[in-house]
Write a structure and sequence with these properties.
Layout: H1 2-24, H2 26-37, H3 86-89, H4 94-101, H5 116-125, H6 141-150, H7 184-190, E1 196-200, E2 218-222, H8 243-247
Parallel strand pairs: 1-2
Length: 248
């Protein structure tokens, strides 16, 4: 009898502790669970398809490289000259600047959305994401609750969590670019291009939404957001008022 009482007490204590941790650190616990379920595998070499031994002759379409940088402010790079860039120009970005100096620079451009997932869906399709029902960044429900709770107070447009609508939100894996939408990769494939996706996807993990089902011949990266390649070797600037910086 004594053993049963002790066992029940220990289970109750563990349950209470987990409940408190879940209330205080829901997202961190979710990240830990994901890492246990999907451990990072050792680095392995990637064998890419080799190009032709000799350059093709005659007319051929140009190579196209689309680089997407999440949350990159216009003054985060030094392309505009002295005083521009991170820390008043202290951090220079010569490689990125060269793309503008040696090519075309568009100084007035607008993203189709203010967050990462829908804006990259717009780049892939050339359409406003609201037209195909992809209006919010794909995140776990606990993260949707976490961000407003820890966002700075007193902002003109505060982050709001609508608890009454949670039941209508699809699972994170199904939040993304519908398979019926036509992507730039699919259009390029019709013109004979070999298409490759590298890095962050974050526009759907469910079947029909993945890179190889959206026009890409090859894909090497990660489907969800908030993932980094070299988390132990990155130099980051953390902002005290940013709830995502507290999380990551």
């Amino acid at each position: 009898m004594r053993f049963v009482e002790v066992t029940v007490a220990v289970v109750a204590l563990l349950a209470a502790s987990l409940s408190i941790l879940w209330l205080l650190f829901p997202v961190q616990l979710m990240v830990l669970i994901v890492r246990l379920r999907r451990p990072v595998k050792p680095t392995q070499p990637v064998t890419w398809e080799r190009g032709p031994a000799a350059l093709p002759t005659g007319d051929r379409p140009p190579n196209i490289v689309l680089i997407v940088a999440d949350d990159l402010g216009f003054n985060d790079i030094s392309v505009e000259g002295a005083g521009c860039g991170v820390a008043g120009g202290l951090v220079q970005t010569p490689k990125i600047d060269a793309l503008a100096h040696e090519g075309a620079q568009f100084t007035q451009g607008y993203a189709a959305h203010a967050t990462c997932s829908p804006s990259r869906a717009a780049l892939l399709t050339g359409r406003y994401p609201a037209r195909f029902g992809f209006e919010f960044t794909a995140v776990p429900s606990q993260l949707a609750k976490y961000v407003p709770r820890h966002s700075p107070k007193g902002r003109p447009y505060p982050t709001i969590y609508h608890a009454e609508r949670q039941g209508r939100v699809p699972p994170m894996e199904a939040m993304g670019l519908p398979g019926g939408e036509v992507t730039i990769a699919e259009i390029l494939k019709q013109s004979g291009y070999h298409t490759i996706h590298l890095g962050k996807w974050h526009v759907g993990e469910a079947p029909g939404m993945r890179p190889e089902e959206q026009g890409f011949d090859e894909s090497l990266g990660f489907l969800a957001g908030a993932i980094k390649y070299l988390s132990d070797h990155c130099v980051e600037a953390r902002i005290a008022g940013d709830p995502l910086d507290r999380l990551l």
